[in-house]
Amino acid sequence: AADAFQAALEVAPPERQASMTSQLASALQRAERYEDARRMLHQTLEQGGGDPALQFQLALTCRRLEDYDCAVQQLRSIQESGQDPSQGRLTQYLAEWSYERAMLPQNQSQREELLTKALAAAEAWHDQAPDDPGARRILGDTLFALGRTDEVILAFQPLADQNPADCDAALMMSRADNARGDAERAEQYARRTIECDARSADAHVELAMALLGQIASDAAGPARAPADLERARAAMAELETAAELEPASPPQRLHDE
Predict the structure, then answer these.
(1) Digit-coded pLDDT (tens) for 78-91
(2) Fewest CB atoms within 10 Å of the CB: 99, 124, 131, 171?
(3) Distance between CA 124 and CA 90 in Å, rounded?
(4) What confidence score (pLDDT) does residue 249 get?
(5) Distance CA 122, CA 30 (A)
(6) How far is it, in rounded angstroms, from Cα 136 to Cα 128?
(7) Sign of the C-alpha dihedral, residues 37, 38, 43, 49?
(8) CB-based contact 252:141 (threshold 8 Å)
């Protein structure tokens, strides 16, 4: 089917090439011929100027190929055009993919610069959808990656304290308190998260880290040993629970340590 579309595209009138290119790209993607789809979309866009619908299709194709530079570039170009062929998800994709691009191992040397751009995209999505759990998480993750823990607390503590049922804000606060060494408060926020979402693997990891953070140093003497042993056992149990909840994909927190 893809080859038939290609043959038809070569003789199609200019006004139909964009729609036929889109159909051909979809056929190539269904056949998992992503490189062919990218090459064809690039060629059509170079010949016919920027078509936001084709640019979005190219962005999706590049994302499938883990070519984040291409994907983000296309999304930014679409954004500049003032059009949105993504059914309202352009800001979300730009925030998510910008963060993913910044965290790639090969981008370590320019990570701070990329994260700064990702933060602007994350803030735009959060401003657009402040109650969206995904927008909150990307904003928090980006701030953490930049080492701006105080800003995480500034953004999420009012939400966590005003609404005890706000699982996302409580989880972010647990991460922040663990990061700055306040293990007791991190434990409180982690337990609150688990109360409203027992299947949050990240919350169980944060609880484990908080429990381990409260284990006394050797200088504290043997009096604390029984309590420390109990905390260590409880922490291991929390990590086992997290692994059971997400066996194929360990929680992000484990990769941050």
Answers:
(1) 999 888 888 889 99
(2) 131
(3) 11
(4) 43
(5) 31
(6) 11
(7) positive
(8) yes
